[in-house]
Design goal:
Length: about 240
């Protein structure tokens, strides 16, 4: 089962084609920072390398409770390096245990450095994708909801990068990045950077959906009775990012 239907995927690919140069120019510095971290993470002791820690903190947007526990976070990152291919749920659990919150953004960013073929989650990406019919991820999701959403996001990335139109989009991305950067980044990372910096560009684009024919009368609105709100069982961890 695909993450998007054919029409939804076509709209997404169209917008990626239109926004590639602008979005990737905005993402260039982030791409270079990601590449630097990726090239050094395996040979660096994250627990005590000050330069790596500073670059990592900037890259993942370290703030709030995690900033206060940053040394513990660096220890977790060093431990995760011993795993051959860590799963998102393992990283999410380890990072979220430091604060008691679902740290989906930081956890997925760390995972993308350990496995460059894994997508990362950020606010811009979460707000853009529902435009194409992709499910919304709540601000404060349950742990299992977050893991399932990341799994579906991975499927979406495979669907997009496996499209016959992606090669041309990827070439346009490479043309907007420094030569060495574009040549090393994985296709998943290119798409991730593109989506994360395309939201503001897409928001300014006109909606190109078919409009109703002139003179067609629309049916009057139908009042719908509000249904009572049923409280959901289970607790939610508060989310700050």
């Amino acid at each position: 089962m695909h993450a998007l239907e054919a029409g939804q995927l076509n709209r997404l690919l169209r917008d990626l084609e239109l926004t590639a140069p602008v979005a990737i120019r905005r993402a260039a510095s982030q791409a270079e920072q990601h590449l630097w971290l990726l090239m050094h993470v395996r040979d660096t002791d994250v627990r005590d390398d000050a330069e790596f820690q500073l670059r990592l903190a900037r890259h993942i947007g370290l703030r709030g409770k995690l900033r206060a526990r940053k040394q513990s976070l660096f220890d977790v990152m060093q431990d995760l390096k011993s795993l051959e291919r860590p799963a998102f749920e393992d990283v999410l659990l380890r990072v979220s245990e430091l604060t008691g919150q679902i740290e989906k953004s930081v956890a997925s960013s760390l995972l993308s450095l350990l496995d460059p073929d894994q997508p990362s989650i950020d606010r811009d990406l979460r707000e853009l994708l529902p435009r194409y019919g992709f499910p919304v991820l709540a601000e404060a999701p349950m742990f299992d909801e977050c893991v399932a959403w990341h799994r579906r996001l991975t499927g979406l990335f495979e669907q997009v990068t496996g499209s016959s139109r992606w090669a041309q989009i990827s070439g346009r991305i490479d043309g907007s990045l420094p030569t060495s950067t574009g040549a090393v980044l994985t296709e998943v990372r290119k798409l991730n950077l593109h989506l994360s910096h395309a939201r503001r560009v897409v928001a300014l684009m006109p909606t190109l959906e078919p409009v109703s024919r002139v003179g067609r009368r629309l049916p009057p609105p139908v009042a719908v009775a509000a249904e009572p709100v049923v409280a959901r069982s289970g607790s939610r961890l508060h989310l700050c990012r």
